[in-house]
Design goal:
- By secondary structure, the protein is an alpha+beta fold.
- The protein has a single domain, classed as Aminohydrolase, N-terminal nucleophile (Ntn) domain (Glutamine Phosphoribosylpyrophosphate, subunit 1, domain 1, 4-Layer Sandwich), CATH 3.60.20.10.
- Helices cover about 25% and strands about 30% of the residues.
- The strands form two sheets. The chain has a four-stranded antiparallel beta sheet, with helices on one face.
- A hairpin with a 2-residue loop joins strand 7 and strand 8.
- The two termini are about 20 Å apart.
Length: about 160
């Protein structure tokens, strides 16, 4: 949906990954201009972790990230292994949280601007193709300040 004079104003992708400290539940939510984005961006496995891979998506980050976390690798090591083996990592954005609430995020320097992320305790909010750099901090604020279960907090952030 590009209107006259609007450029890429409506092109965007933003997501949040989180682990609830009270219940241990894991979750991931995404919003994008891309049709059926949920089938390629979000990955989660109960008792293991959640992954959001976006920007110039490398879908293997989802299943490989979950497999490495299942094998006991923390998200930081998992993410480092995946990005170091990927020639396109500079154009990618990926976030991971494991069952212990440890978070790792990568926003490549060549992601479509504006792009960035904010890490909090047990969660990360990330966005790319934004009009400005206020989106991911606003998402983090909404997640932190919303009362309710994990689903309510994820939806508030989105």
């Amino acid at each position: 949906m590009v209107g006259k004079g609007l450029g890429n104003r409506f092109a965007h992708t933003f997501s949040i990954i989180a682990r609830c400290p009270e219940t241990g539940l894991l979750g991931v939510a995404v919003q994008s201009h891309w049709f059926s984005v949920g089938s390629i961006v979000i990955w989660a496995e109960a008792g293991v972790g959640a992954v959001a891979t976006q920007a110039m998506i490398e879908m293997s980050y989802g299943p490989l990230g979950l497999a490495l976390m299942l094998a006991g690798k923390p998200p930081a090591e998992t993410l480092a292994a995946l990005t170091s083996a990927d020639n396109g990592h500079e154009m990618r954005q990926v976030a991971m949280v494991d069952r212990r609430g440890r978070v790792a995020v990568h926003t490549g320097p060549r992601c479509v601007a504006d792009a960035g992320h904010e890490i909090g305790e047990g969660f990360s909010a990330q966005a790319n193709m934004m009009i400005n750099r206020e989106v991911w901090p606003a998402m983090a604020t909404a997640y932190r300040s919303t009362k309710g279960d994990l689903t309510e907090r994820l939806l508030a952030a989105i």
